[in-house]
Amino acid sequence: METVEKIKQQISENPILLYMKGSPKLPSCGFSAQASQALMSCGEAFAYVDILQNPDIRAELPNYADWPTFPQLWVEGELVGGCDIILEMFQKGELQELIKEVAERHPAPSEE
Ligand SMILES: N[C@@H](CCC(=O)N[C@@H](CS)C(=O)NCC(=O)O)C(=O)O
Ligand code: FES
Hints:
It comes from Pseudidiomarina insulisalsae. Pfam families: Glutaredoxin. The longest helix has 12 residues. Helices cover 50% and strands 15% of the residues. The protein is built from five helices and four strands. The structure holds glutathione and FE2/S2 (inorganic) cluster.
């Protein structure tokens, strides 16, 4: 599959998706660590893609997203932003609100 097709599929299939360096449990960069921490604190499941394991996505996503860096948080098919925006929203309580709403709209199969 073309990288851009892979990206589109990931974004459309995962209502809460974090592109990051490393994993939420073992982040490989402070920015990705802070972003995934904030997201985990919202208490809902989310998907992630480790771009260090996917160099094609690392190379292609900044063009597709028109956003140069990682992490990138995508919610319901739209780019929310990177670490700065995620932390700012978290401090205002907006991230928690958004994530809760989205999780309610997309219940996980295992919870049904
Ligand atoms: N201010 C940025 C910080 C993120 C950042 O600067 N990321 C850099 C270093 S980890 C990056 O992704 N560079 C491109 C790359 O490594 O592919 C944010 O809010 O997300
Ligand atoms: S990997 Fe060096 S700042 Fe993110």
